[in-house]
Amino acid sequence: QVQFVESGGGLVQPGGSLSLSCAASGIRFTFYDMAWYRQAPGKQREFIALITTASSTNYADSVKGRFTISRDKDKNMVYLQMNSLKPEDTAVYYCNGRIRRTNVDYWGQGTQVTVSS
């Protein structure tokens, strides 16, 4: 059974930091590009960060320089370190895993991040 389980969300003040984790199970983790997306209330889900099977990374302009994606292939984990958080970062954050050039595409259930004073 494939499962992606996010954790680490919560409430943080502007300028603060949070670290999200995603535990993947039931897959050959090394075959998957892993990504984080987010969805704010009333908005479409948007891409945040990608880490490929070769550990190359790519970021949305809105988080570049503030967020860092990483993966641990031994633990089947992917992480998102979020620094200098802004109120506009408030959203549900989703972990995604996909295999390039296939329709294999899995999502976690999401974790809420709220940035507010």
Order of helices and strands: EEEEEEEEEEE
Q: Given the structure, what is the number of helices?
A: 0
Distance between the termini: 40 Å
Share of β-strand residues:
over 45%
DSSP strand tally:
11
Indicate the low-confidence ranges by residue numbers: none
Helix content: under 10%
Question: Average pLDDT value?
Answer: 97
Q: Please compute the radius of gyration using only Cα atoms.
A: 14 Å
Class of secondary structure makeup: mainly beta
Q: Report the major sheet.
A: 7 strands, mixed
User: How would you sum up the global shape?
Assistant: globular
Structure description:
The mean pLDDT is 97. It contains no helices and 11 strands. Strands 2, 4, 5, 6, 9, 10 and 11 form a 7-stranded mixed beta sheet that branches. A 4-stranded antiparallel beta sheet has the order 1-3-8-7, with no helix packed on it. 29% of the residues are buried. The protein has strands spanning 3-7, 10-12, 18-25, 33-39, 46-51, 57-59, 67-72, 77-82, 91-98, 105-107, 111-115. β7 and β8 form a beta hairpin. The chain has 117 residues and is mainly β. Helix content is 0%, strand content 51%.
